[in-house]
Amino acid sequence: MRISSNQLFQQGLSAMLERQSSLSRAQLEISSGQKMLSAADNPVGAVRAAGLDAAIARGEQFIENASFARTRLSAEENAVDSAVNVMQRLRDLTLQANNATQSNESRAAIAREVREQLDNLLQIANTATGDGNYLFAGFQENVKPFSFTNGSLSYHGDDGRREIQLGPSRSVADADPGSHVFAGIKKGNGDFEALAATANTGSAVIASGSVTDYGVWDEREYQIVFTSPTDYDIQDDTATVIASGSYREGDSIGFAGINVTLSGPAETGDSFTIRPSERTDVMSIVEQLARELETPRSNPAERAAQTNGLNVALSDISRALDHLVEVQTGIGTRLNVVDQEVELNENVKLQLQQSLSGIRDVDMVEAASRLSQNLTGLQAAQQAFARVQQLSLFEFL
Question: What's the pTM value of the predicted model, to 2 decimals?
Fold first, then answer.
């Protein structure tokens, strides 16, 4: 077999170029931190890596969505907490005012604070977030949701709830519309209202009462009408007498699956209405309370009417508090969902990143070892090439 000097030269050059290529490859892997420098290096791995990149991007978007939802829900939670504090203060003021030792002047002073608290509630209901959008306006977040004029509340938002995607199959509402938070509150005890007629001349006061048998309670309107200071009739909504009884102060009166209690002396012609609970809003409850406190009372019948009015206010405030606490509970539940989804998405993201690293990232120890090996090989190839060049016959002529 004949081997020419040119063949030896080409073989040595090829060996050095191969070593240089391997050395360059190792250097690029170390500098980039990736072993897959192009899709051609690992076509199957490139497809898997692209899928993992997309999944990681979706997970990061879910985490970002959760951060946005948490910010909005926290703002709503703070606003509702403030509303609860205001309503608790109003309940304390109502209890303070509903005392026989209070005078018209002292109740008027309490009414002034009640109106200040009403202003606070309106400001809370019109809470704006850091971006200038209104929290309780539903989808109409650039519209101021509430106005309160002449004792009447108007809502200018809508009932929309924006759902924020937290995962492939999980979303959460980032806020509640004001129509849900501050309105839709059932008056009285939540089942019915017990109201004294404004024309009553006696001093009887009616409590809020309760339903004793929901199977019998038919949600109709009834009247307790006193035919004498000690006798009464129960009339239904057709003015038909369905029952009669004798009245003694403090006795409970039961009919149609409900029970109410009257205290204080009644007069002939006095009447009390029992009707299914209507829905109202927080501001109207407070407005009615303020008006009740601002009206001066000068005789026992008027003071009894005021007591009845304050009892109604207490019942309505309690219902409003129950409603707001229910809203708080819903917000807290959604915040827990957000935290759970963030934790889940973070764990999934970490797993995906580990899988992607296994496909794409270089093993630095192995790459450094390969770099050193290729460098040594290149140096050996260069030395061998230099020695082979000296074997030409021309060197001896």
Answer: 0.79
pLDDT (tens digit per residue) in 276-288 = 999 999 999 999 9
Residue 163, classified by CB atoms within 10 Å of its CB into exposed (0-12), middle (13-18) or buried (19+), is exposed
Alpha carbon distance, N-terminus to C-terminus of the chain? 24
- ∠32-36-39 over CA atoms, to 5°? 125
Here the tokens at position 397 are: 């002529």
User: Mind spelling out the 3-state secondary structure of 208-253?
Assistant: CCEECCCCCCCCCCEEEEEEECCEEEEECCCCCEEEEEECCCCCEE
Listed residue (293, 272, 381) closest to 90, CA to CA: 293
How far are the Cα atoms of 21, 363, 373 from residue 368, in angstroms, in the given order? 15, 9, 9
Closest CA to 209 of 222, 197, 198, 200: 222
Q: Helix 300-360 and helix 282-294: axis angle, to 10°?
A: 150
Single-letter residue type at 218: D
* CB hemisphere CA count around 57 (13 angstroms): 6
pLDDT at 107 over 60: yes
Contacts of 125 (CB under 8 A, 6+ apart): 83, 136, 145, 146, 178, 181, 182, 282, 283
Q: Where is 63: in which H helix or E strand?
A: helix 43-97
Per mean pLDDT, which range of 31-40, 108-117, 268-277 is the poorest?
A: 31-40
Query: What does the block give as tokens for 162?
Result: 């924006």
**Closest by alpha carbon to 57, among 385, 384, 257, 353?**
353
How do 192-196 and 271-276 pair as beta strands? Answer: antiparallel
Question: pLDDT tens digit string along 279-319?
Answer: 999 999 999 999 999 999 889 999 999 999 999 999 999 99
What confidence tens digit (pLDDT) does each residue in 35-63 have? 555 555 556 666 676 777 788 888 889 99
Q: In this structure, what token pair is assigned to residue 145?
A: 């949701």
d(CA 335, CA 66): 9
Spatial distance between the Cα atoms of 241 and 361, rounded to a whole number of angstroms: 88
